[in-house]
TrEMBL record:
It comes from Didymodactylos carnosus. PANTHER family: ZYGOTE-SPECIFIC CLASS V COPY B GENE PROTEIN, ZYGOTE-SPECIFIC PROTEIN. This is Uncharacterized protein.
Length: 86
Protein backbone atom coordinates (compact mmCIF):
# COMPACT_ATOMS: atom_id res chain seq x y z
CA UNK A 1 0.00 0.00 0.00
CA UNK A 2 1.08 3.56 -0.66
CA UNK A 3 1.13 6.25 2.00
CA UNK A 4 -1.61 8.80 1.55
CA UNK A 5 -0.75 12.40 2.13
CA UNK A 6 -3.55 13.50 4.42
CA UNK A 7 -1.53 16.49 5.52
CA UNK A 8 -3.87 18.96 3.81
CA UNK A 9 -6.85 17.48 5.69
CA UNK A 10 -5.02 17.66 9.01
CA UNK A 11 -3.95 21.22 8.16
CA UNK A 12 -7.54 22.22 7.39
CA UNK A 13 -8.76 20.70 10.67
CA UNK A 14 -6.03 22.54 12.56
CA UNK A 15 -6.91 25.86 10.87
CA UNK A 16 -10.57 25.29 11.72
CA UNK A 17 -9.65 24.75 15.37
CA UNK A 18 -7.62 27.98 15.32
CA UNK A 19 -10.58 29.89 13.90
CA UNK A 20 -12.90 28.38 16.50
CA UNK A 21 -10.49 29.55 19.19
CA UNK A 22 -10.41 33.05 17.68
CA UNK A 23 -14.21 33.26 17.63
CA UNK A 24 -14.27 32.19 21.29
CA UNK A 25 -11.55 34.68 22.23
CA UNK A 26 -13.32 37.58 20.50
CA UNK A 27 -16.64 36.54 22.08
CA UNK A 28 -15.14 36.57 25.55
CA UNK A 29 -13.89 40.11 24.82
CA UNK A 30 -17.41 41.18 23.80
CA UNK A 31 -16.52 41.38 20.11
CA UNK A 32 -17.86 39.64 17.04
CA UNK A 33 -15.18 37.92 14.96
CA UNK A 34 -15.20 38.50 11.20
CA UNK A 35 -18.40 40.51 11.03
CA UNK A 36 -18.93 44.12 10.06
CA UNK A 37 -21.90 46.31 9.31
CA UNK A 38 -22.65 47.53 5.79
CA UNK A 39 -22.04 51.10 6.93
CA UNK A 40 -18.64 50.24 8.37
CA UNK A 41 -17.67 48.33 5.23
CA UNK A 42 -18.77 51.23 3.03
CA UNK A 43 -16.56 53.70 4.86
CA UNK A 44 -13.50 51.48 4.54
CA UNK A 45 -10.33 52.55 6.36
CA UNK A 46 -12.02 55.67 7.72
CA UNK A 47 -14.54 53.46 9.50
CA UNK A 48 -11.72 51.32 10.85
CA UNK A 49 -9.85 54.38 12.09
CA UNK A 50 -13.01 55.76 13.69
CA UNK A 51 -13.50 52.45 15.50
CA UNK A 52 -9.88 52.39 16.60
CA UNK A 53 -9.97 55.91 18.01
CA UNK A 54 -13.38 55.58 19.68
CA UNK A 55 -13.02 52.10 21.16
CA UNK A 56 -11.68 51.58 24.69
CA UNK A 57 -8.02 50.60 24.78
CA UNK A 58 -8.84 47.38 26.63
CA UNK A 59 -11.08 46.24 23.75
CA UNK A 60 -8.39 47.03 21.19
CA UNK A 61 -5.82 45.16 23.29
CA UNK A 62 -8.14 42.16 23.56
CA UNK A 63 -8.69 42.12 19.78
CA UNK A 64 -4.93 42.37 19.19
CA UNK A 65 -4.25 39.53 21.64
CA UNK A 66 -6.90 37.31 20.03
CA UNK A 67 -5.49 38.04 16.58
CA UNK A 68 -1.93 37.29 17.71
CA UNK A 69 -3.02 34.01 19.30
CA UNK A 70 -4.83 33.01 16.11
CA UNK A 71 -1.75 33.79 14.02
CA UNK A 72 0.48 31.73 16.31
CA UNK A 73 -1.97 28.83 16.20
CA UNK A 74 -2.19 28.93 12.41
CA UNK A 75 1.59 29.04 12.07
CA UNK A 76 1.80 25.94 14.27
CA UNK A 77 -0.48 24.13 11.78
CA UNK A 78 1.93 24.59 8.86
CA UNK A 79 4.00 21.38 9.37
CA UNK A 80 0.81 19.35 8.98
CA UNK A 81 0.72 20.19 5.26
CA UNK A 82 3.55 17.77 4.56
CA UNK A 83 2.70 15.10 7.13
CA UNK A 84 2.20 11.76 5.34
CA UNK A 85 -0.23 9.32 6.88
CA UNK A 86 0.17 5.64 6.00
Amino acid sequence: SFPVSSGPLAYAACQTACNYGAVTCYSLAGLTFGVTTAAAAATGPVGWWAWLTSTPTSTIAAAAACSAAQGTCMAACTPLLVAPTP
